[in-house]
Every structure is written in C-alpha cells, then in structure tokens.
Amino acid sequence: MTTPPSPPSPRPDHLAAAEAARSQGDHSTAEAHYRAALASNEGNPAVHYNLGTYCAQRGDWVGACEYFKTAVAGAPDFALAWYNLGSSLRQLNQLPDARSALARALELAPDLHAARVNLSLVEFALGDSESALRLAHAALEAHPDDPDVFANLSTYLRTLGAIEDAKLCAESALRLQPTHAGAWQALGTLAQDQRAFAAAVTCYRHAIENDPDNAAAHWNLGLAALAQGNFDLGWREYEWRTRLPQMRDHYPDFGLPLWQGEASQPLAGKTLLLVAEQGHGDTLQFVRLARQVKAAGACVKLMAQPALLRLLRPLPWLDAVVAQTDAPPAADYVLPLLSLPARLGLQLAELPGDLPYLAAPAENLAAWRQRLADLPSTGGQAKPRPRIGLVWSGDPRPHDPESQRIDARRSLPLAQLAPLFANTPEYAWFSLQKGSAAAQAAAWPQLLDYSGEWQDFADTAALVAQLNLVITVDTAMAHLSAALGKPTWVLSRFDACWRWLDGRSDSPWYPGLRLFRQPSPGDWATPLAELAGALGEHFGR
Q1: Number of domains in the chain
Q2: pLDDT digit string (tens) for 238-284?
C-alpha cells in the first residue's frame, strides 16, 4: 500500500500525552491534551486530524467531520484525512459528500483499501449497485482474504436477486472469520427474505454476540421477532432503528428528555411530544396508541406529516397536532411515535383497540356524498353498484434507494389488475392512486379517477368513506382505509412487511383487513386470482 502524504507533525508533547491517555480510556485527560495541542498548533492539519479521529472513536461524527474538513483545507493532499472525512460523512448519511471525499482519498492514494471498501458501501447506499460491485471486486482482487468485502458483496448481490451467490459470499466471509458480524447479518437477511424466521433470528443473534453494538443486526432481529408475533423481543430490538445512519434524519434532537415509560417520569400533568417518523402509514397505524398516554393524564402533542394534519387534529386524545416542518411545541418529554409500543409494553392480545378511530371531516363527507350520488346503477336496477377503490403502486422515493427496492417488490403495473375491473360493469371502480403511477389510470375508462382533486389525507378519507371496499398494495392506503373501518384487501409481496405477521391472511391490527400474499417472490398472478374469486363471494355475485 502506498503511504499517503501527511503534513508536518506538531510539537509532540501534547499529542503524545493525548494518545497515551486515549489508549488508557482516560477521555477527559486526552481531550484536555488535544485542546492544548490545538491551541499551540491551531493551523496544523495533523492536530485537527488527530482530534477528528478522537471524535470518531467516541461516535461524535459531527465533530469528527468538522476537524477532518479543517485538516483537508490545510493539507489538500492528506489522503487519510479525506478517507476519514468520507467515512464520518457516511455515518451521518451525508452520502453525496461522503462519495466525493472517499473518491478524493482514492485519487491521492490508489492503494488505500479501506477507502475503496467504504466508497463501495456509499455507492450502494446511493443506488449505484454497478459501481458498488465494481469497487468491491477491485478491493477483493487486492485483498482476497478480506471478510468485510465478502460480506458487503453478499448484501449487494442479494438486492440484485443473485441469492445463491449472495449466500456463498457470506459463507466465504465466515470461513475467513467465523465471528464476522456483518456476514452473520447478511445470512440473516437472506433467511428472512425467504421467511425462514427462526434461522434469521439465529443468525442475527450470532451477529450481536460478536458485535453487541451492531444496530442493523438488532433492528433486523426486531423485525424478524415482530413478524413472528414475539412483541416482547420485537419492540425492544426495534428501538435500535434510531441508531441506523439512514434513519437519523427521522429523529431530530429537540433538547427534551426522552420519555422512557418509567415511574421516575410520570405522565400525569406533563406534556409528551410525539414525533411521527418514517411513512404516512406508520403514523396512521400507531397514532391509536397515543390514547394510552392521554389516559395516563398527559397532555399529548404530535408532530406529523403535513398531509395528515386535517385528518388527525380532531382525534380527542391529541391536544395539538403540528407539522413536522414547524418549530416543536413546548413539552416536558419527547418520544418517536413508533417507540410507543416498547414504552407501553404492547402485546398482540391487546390489539386492535377501538375501531374505527379515524373519520373524515364532515364537510368533506357531505361534498363527496353529493358528488357520487348520480353514479349509474347496474343494468337499470335501482340498487347502486358496489364501489371499489384501487391502489397498485407505492411511493418510489427516488432519494432513498433501499425504499426504492422495497417499493419495486410491493408495486405492480395497473395492467396486471385490469382483469379485475375491465369486464366487471357490476362494480364501480375508483382509482385511489397518487404519484407518478396515477397516470396509468388514463388508459382504462372503467376507472373513475378523482385523485387530482385531493389536497391531503382528509380529502382521500372522505372519498374512501363512500366506498364499499378498498383493494391496495402495501401502502398508507391500507392503514387509512382500515382505520376508517372499511373492508380492506391488501396485495402483499412475498417478503411481507413485519406488521402483517407471517402466515396470516388477517391482521390483528385491523379486523376488517384481509391479506392476499405472493406465494413466491414476484408472483402476483396467484394472489390476484384468489382476490378475483373472493370478490364475487364478498358481494354475493
């Protein structure tokens, strides 16, 4: 490996003392010596570099980035500083900047193996699987015994559908290093994809045994446990999601104590700020749990997605609902919304709670009732046709490659649903699709499409309230419709979301919801055939 250039060293006294204290775990002394070194060598990039590595070791990625930026500003050819800057930016999920810094490190030091490995991870996270694979193979050529690269390759190949090759790479990593946490985690995800949850749990436990702070392994263990209905383990491990780099943006620091659900933090007379996270469907599913903290005497405030505000504000257990984009309201405690199950000790037997718990605003209901009053009946009969809503695609989220991959598996083209509605005049079919996929409805005159008139979920809820059935892929619409009390049928991908549990066609979250599952990855024909048969039975036709 070519040794990257580095700037002249500062006076060694304080730096040597800092490194000695750091090696002994005496962080306060180490920091004092680093500060002294900085004071006497403020313009020396090496001092900033050492302070950056100190911050990185302690998990202070923001501080690390600042010091590394100063180091490369003073020494633009300092390859190790560029590498560490890129690695720290990756931890903060600032991926485009991480890519630039790591690419610069490789430009300066082409043999810097760690930079190539990290750059491949960044490229993968940005959705460029081809570049990630190219970099990983180059890294493996130079270091054929590196288990990290084999584990990374396993992850890349899995997302590309090369399952057997992915498994072989993970196994190669474990032959080289039987305690490799990343390889155990990779094997766990491969097992979980096949719904082999017991095997997945075993793999995740191996990963955690060898790397107790592996947030991804803990989180995946939580998902596997939840899919099996093991809520005790599942909710506990699900809490690790807040430590994932790709999730950090969901959890801003409001400077408030985190509510832990303990006796030392009584809720009576206190204000709890709940913060919505992840997608609209997550908020709709879990907002019901806020009833329990309201019943404990708390004033409950919620920061939610702007599109949900009008729908959620009338809920009697929410004292205030503000947009995520607004300044946080005053509160005593704060909690991410999806941490409520862990704090409340939610059990499967406690579901679903009172249903329905959502309702469209009265003025919207009246408007849509009038709007649909003149729809024609079947064959000249007075009895109205059953009204059925359709959603066939999720939100592709082009800014989030992993979400894109999931969305590709849960969505299908409208043309695949066409046999359901193209020749069934006995039903009135409504497109409930939003986003770019909504344009597909224009090719099918059998579909009534009012989606362009909706401003938010309150508008959508008012139309859904006029329907007899909603058929949807696994999107927020499933939660909206079911929480409104509407019969809801969900077309679910083979590797279904944990919330639907494994091996069930019903949902304890929503008694009116029915699941039509793929029996194998990519097979929509089977659940669609089952759904078509169920349709006639449901309406007695």
Answers
A1: 4
A2: 999 999 987 877 888 889 999 999 989 999 999 999 999 999 999 99
